[in-house]
Write a structure and sequence with these properties.
Layout: H1 2-43, H2 47-53, H3 67-73
């Protein structure tokens, strides 16, 4: 009798572990799909779109532009 109880308990716990693992993997896959969609939308931005989003005074110090690019930015 104890053997059957142990086998049933092991089967139930094993199935629970598999179900939890599957749900976690599905949640992780959904997060990765959302991240891929976000990265894809950013990759479609043009330089002009980025200039509209981020003004030049907020550029990081490591961003440098050639003289031609600087002239095309400031078309006052």
């Amino acid at each position: 009798m104890a053997f059957l109880f142990g086998a049933a308990l092991g089967l139930v716990l094993g199935m629970a572990v598999v179900m939890v693992f599957a749900r976690l993997e599905n949640a992780r896959a959904e997060q990765r799909r959302e991240l891929a969609a976000t990265v894809s939308s950013f990759s479609k931005l043009t330089v002009q779109d980025l200039r509209n989003f981020i003004p030049p005074e907020f550029y990081p110090s490591w961003v440098s532009f050639t003289q031609k690019q600087k002239l095309s930015i400031c078309q006052c």
